[in-house]
Amino acid sequence: MEESRKLSGKDLITIGIFSAIYFVLNLAAMFTGFVPVLWLLLPGVTGIVTGIPFLLMTAKVRKPGAVFIMGTITALLYFVTGQFTVLLLITFAIACILSELYRSVTKYDNSFTHMMISFVFFCYGMLGSPLAIWVYKDSFLAQIQQNGMSAEYVRSLSGLISTPMLIILCISPVIGGVIGALIAKGLFRKHFKKAGIV
Amino acid sequence: MNKITVINHLDPRAGLWLLLMANIGMFCQKNSEQGSMLSGIFLLLMLVHGLYKAAGKGIVLLVSFHLLLMYVFPQCPAWMNMVFPVLINYSLRMLPCVLAGLLLLRTSSMQKMIAAMYTLHLPQGFIIAMSTTLRYFPALKEEFVHINAAMKLQNISWASRLECTVVPLIVSAVNTSDEIAAAAVARGIENPGKKTSEITLHMGISDWLIMILVTVGILIVVIAG
């Protein structure tokens, strides 16, 4: 039993390949962040887009560490391209650990509900990117004022960086994650089951 | 190959250290002068390593962002100002990290990165997965081009384009992973012994010098601000 819980070479390669797909889709979601409102909802958008590789990977590799490796690869790739802040690193680590914990509690069951919930946990990792605005809020606003913006403008801007917006941000991974998982489920049923992949 | 450079080698480990420093600098940054100075340090490093084009783009970006913030946005209507200055301020803050990342990517090959991961004593399982990911990116791109070409032939509507891209991509990924796994097992990936690398990395004097200079420089910028 102990032996079969260890990641084999084949598992590692599966994780590696799906991490590549996950990263590309995640990056694509990142680009929608140029539309500012979507950026505030980035964790949700990422969830919608990246459901397929995550669910397929977790269905194929039902062993401890798989999600953690996927998360670490994503984090490291973002770190190397310089888009990763310490904040994002922390949220990513927490999200991966929660997702792993949930998977180990449910004994790596590949029923849809369990995979979906572990995916929602994983989605929370992207929270760190927009969260930076709230954490650096004061220095952000001071910098804008320093650039010669009117006080009124700064006030309305700080209104946008508000608590209700933060709550929306925190809920977005749940909604995005569920939608992403449902899309993945639909595709699984329509294509991958027939092809004998899942 | 015959580019004129002051230094033509940067150890990936030194590059990672610079990246870490850039992150710390960004984290401690309090005003925009500090940010510009941090970006300046990395632009200078790029010039030293002969990345003239990338450094040029970085300088243009830095200057135009600042000009926009100082002269254009105060004149713009309020609705425009709701979003863009925030975005540009954020980009300016991220710029030192992006530059450091670019420096690392341009100066070291994939093999060097993997060799560096081994010398940093990362878990072997992680390194295998990571190198698979890195090597799969070109294949993914190739696959994407093929699928796009096939879609053009069949006149597929915009609505179903996404599904028609993602599904074959995933199916081919699953098949590829089976094939690579079989090949890797045949070559002894399951061998629990330590893997060896063709490349031996060594930190040169220039690496240490750059690491020390940049660390001191960033410390000065952070403390002085």
TrEMBL record, chain A:
Keyword Ligase: no
InterPro entries in alphabetical order: CHP02185_IM
Pfam families hit by this protein: Trep_Strep
Signal sequence, start to end: none
Transmembrane segments: 12-31, 37-57, 86-103, 115-136, 156-184
Keywords carried by this UniProt record: Membrane, Transmembrane, Transmembrane helix
Entry keyword Acyltransferase: no
Record protein name field: MptD family putative ECF transporter S component
Organism expressing this protein natively: Jingyaoa shaoxingensis
UniProtKB/TrEMBL annotation, chain B:
Residue ranges of coiled coil: none
Keywords: Cell membrane, Membrane, Transferase, Transmembrane, Transmembrane helix
CDD domains the UniProt entry points to: EcfT (cd16914)
Subcellular location: Membrane
One Gene Ontology MF term: transferase activity
Pfam families: CbiQ
Keyword presence, Transmembrane helix: yes
Membrane-spanning segments: 35-52, 86-105, 205-224
Membrane topology (UniProt): Multi-pass membrane protein
Statement: the UniProt record of this protein carries the keyword ATP-binding: no
Domain of life from the UniProt record: Bacteria
Record's protein name: Energy-coupling factor transporter transmembrane protein EcfT
Organism: Jingyaoa shaoxingensis
